[in-house]
Design goal:
The protein has about 675 residues and is α/β, with parallel strands linked by helices. Helices cover about 40% and strands about 10% of the residues. α1 packs across α2 (about 35-50), α7 crosses α15 (about 415-425) and α19 (about 565-580) crosses α24. The radius of gyration is 28 Å and the shape is elongated.
Length: about 675
């Protein structure tokens, strides 16, 4: 090919397009159309606008790039490889193969340079809002005159499919309200979805919709017009008061003579013969695959190398900052490494046993006050339920479009995007986020919870109103299947504490946890504070299950429970003891923590010799069989609840001391 006959940037862009086509064809699966269409847009970003260092993908002040339509991942993998991240041409050729660095959708941790796991449409879009909030919070805390330590942008490519998902509406609305001017989205307006033209189901005016959200909206009529794309990005960076949406018209499958602009270029390889025609269209050798001219590779490598110098300047700036503001610099470095002040755990409250009952949500509020006072980058809020979840940090202000120093976030009634935004914040080193709503509404949050587990990131999620114990709100608000549903997610840690002291310990575990999301489940109703002088210490919660109260002689059966039901089985144990029946009480706040213990510890809690076991939990009985064995029993909820005072519901569904005693005795007769 005679390079003199072709503009070099166009030649480089077409090289990347053909690489994507070859990779998808070689894998025999994938999505070639969008990478073919959007390579010019990504080219402009990676060569002209973004600050990044391929040799240090985690540089704190790098610009973030998110490919929200994760199915177009060959676009991202190509630019990561070409600009010098730890990827090779062989990795490109291993696209979608077992244990490769280039899976079918981008995965955080697996591929260097991937900022978040995307694929489920809309999630990356909303993650970016969390990243933007985190950047604003870091800048407000650490930036000083002459020291713009955190001034990065978050760039997002989003698709029609992303914008159809409800989570993007939630996140975009909040981003506009908060005036997150560090967000720049490039919307691939290609009019095509998997089923065909988007006018089958999507005819709204996206630009006006985002203007209504408070965004700055621009339009580019042709993605191949590099100057127009670049100018729109310049304008977007200059707009610091509003998030930006750049609507870019593209032709999916650009370069494919028979499939460009058609849905069948979206989700399947083009086919051997069509690939040859694509190479003809772009002027490449139709018989060769994975062709990468040295001049193209060097062009992109130089773009990546510029980031090395950019980071070096920032490191010098941070070193000077550390001299002038040593405490703040040390604080950030510690927080970025997941370290917290030495004394925060010692400050956690210990609640005295007494006659006054305390809901675990109220105990949590007391603990939150201590944690927030000790850990400066601890930030969070609820989906419009702070008065009910008791998660407002009362000693701190709200994070708003005018006050970036606030520590209380207000997500509005947007549970789905709250979860996704928390993930974006958790992906930002130096920030420890939490979010809260009712346990029943965990149903609205499952996609981001699952993705947090996949990414092994650790947002803290608080769910209150955990059972039929919330009473009169009735069937629609009383969770039954949610606990087992959450426990089924690999990599999640669910903790349902039994009283105020277990609540404090649950928070200790949650803050320290670094390997997946932690879900804390709290009551609305008051619970007795368990006497730690009489029973085992709540600090044993970290083992997931522990012997809370032992029988006076060799136990004949084991009573086990979580949350509010622990107090119930303690009372049952007393009655059984008076009748000469020896029973052990096990508090089991977290199955996941218990499963991390060794076999010897598990045997001490649940000896194989004690086969009579009764589990009590106001939730679906599913999953308990593993702990109660075939000779045990489970008192749970097999129907939905009803609207009535809590005590009436306990009687109706059998969560009474008398019924627990009755069920325990029945086990001994087997």
């Amino acid at each position: 090919m005679d390079l003199k006959d072709m503009d070099f940037q166009t030649f480089a862009i077409n090289t990347v397009r053909v690489l994507a086509v070859d990779a998808v064809q070689h894998a025999k699966s994938g999505h070639p159309g969008t990478p073919m269409a959007l390579t010019p847009m990504a080219h402009v970003l990676w060569t002209q606008f973004m600050n990044y260092n391929p040799k240090n993908p985690g540089w704190a002040n790098r610009d973030r790039f998110i490919l929200s339509p994760g199915h177009a991942c060959m676009l991202l993998y190509n630019f990561l490889f070409l600009t010098g991240y730890d990827l090779t041409l062989d990795d490109i050729q291993q696209f979608r193969q077992l244990n490769s660095k280039t899976p079918g959708h981008p995965e955080y941790r697996l591929t260097p340079g991937v900022e978040t796991t995307t694929g489920p449409l809309g999630q990356g879009f909303a993650n970016a809002v969390g990243m933007a909030i985190a950047q604003k919070e870091l800048a407000a805390r650490y930036n000083k005159p002459g020291f713009p330590i955190f001034n990065y942008h978050i760039y997002v490519i989003c698709s029609d499919g992303d914008l159809m998902e409800g989570v993007t509406s939630e996140a975009a609305s909040l981003a506009g309200h908060l005036r997150l001017g560090n967000l720049i989205y490039l919307y691939d307006d290609n009019h095509i979805s998997l089923e065909g033209n988007t006018d089958l189901a999507f005819t709204e005016d996206v630009g006006k919709r985002f203007e209504a959200y408070g965004w700055y909206v621009q339009s580019v009529s042709d993605v191949n017009d590099l100057h127009a794309v670049s100018l729109a990005l310049v304008n977007a960076k200059a707009e610091i008061q509003r998030p930006s949406l750049i609507r870019v018209r593209s032709l999916i499958g650009y370069g494919s003579p028979n499939k460009s602009g058609k849905a069948d270029s979206h989700g399947s390889p083009l086919g051997t013969e069509e690939v040859k025609l694509v190479k003809d269209f772009f002027g490449f050798d139709r018989e060769k695959s994975f062709v990468l001219p040295d001049e193209v590779l060097q062009y992109y490598r130089k773009a990546g190398e510029r980031g090395i110098a950019t980071e070096a300047k920032w490191q010098k700036l941070f070193a000077d900052y550390a001299i002038k503001y040593p405490k703040l610099a040390e604080e950030f470095v510690s927080a970025a490494n997941g370290e917290f002040p030495d004394d925060w755990e010692k400050a956690l409250p210990v609640f005295a046993a007494g006659e006054k009952k305390m809901a675990t949500r109220d105990a949590s509020a007391s603990v939150l006050k201590i944690i927030a006072g000790k850990i400066p980058n601890f930030i969070g809020g609820s989906a419009d339920l702070n008065p009910s979840t008791k998660t407002n940090l009362n000693d701190f202000e709200s994070f708003t479009n005018e006050n970036r120093n606030g520590r209380n976030l207000h997500f509005g009634v947007r549970e789905h995007s709250m979860g996704s935004i928390l993930n974006g914040m958790a992906l930002t080193k130096g920030v420890k986020p939490f979010g809260a709503t009712f346990l029943l509404f965990s149903e609205y949050m499952r996609p981001p919870i699952r993705l947090a587990a996949i990414m092994k990131i650790s947002p803290i999620i608080v769910y209150t109103h955990d059972s039929i114990g919330l009473g009169e709100d009735g069937t629609t608000h009383q969770p039954v299947e949610q606990l087992i549903s959450l426990r089924c997610i690999p990599g999640i840690t669910v903790i349902r504490p039994a009283d105020a002291n277990e609540t404090a310990q649950a928070w200790r575990v949650a803050v320290r946890h670094k390997d997946g999301p932690v879900v804390l489940v709290f009551t609305r109703q008051g619970l007795p504070v368990i006497d730690q002088d009489k029973y085992a210490k709540a600090g044993n919660l970290e083992k997931g299950a522990y012997i809370l109260s032992e029988a006076s002689k060799t136990p004949e059966l084991i009573l086990m429970a979580t949350g509010s039901e622990v107090a119930l089985i303690l009372q049952a144990q007393e009655i059984l003891e008076k009748e000469g029946i020896a029973s052990r009480v096990v508090s089991m706040p977290s199955w996941e923590l218990f499963e991390q213990q060794d076999t010897a510890y598990k045997e001490t809690v649940f000896p194989r010799a004690i086969k009579r076991r009764l589990a009590v939990e106001m939730a679906s009985p599913m999953g308990w069989r593993e702990y109660i064995t075939d000779e045990g029993d489970m008192l749970g909820m097999k129907t939905y609840g009803k609207s009535a005072p809590a005590e009436v519901l306990y009687e109706t569904y059998g969560f009474t001391v008398d019924n627990v005693v009755k069920r325990a005795k029945a086990l001994l007769k087997k």
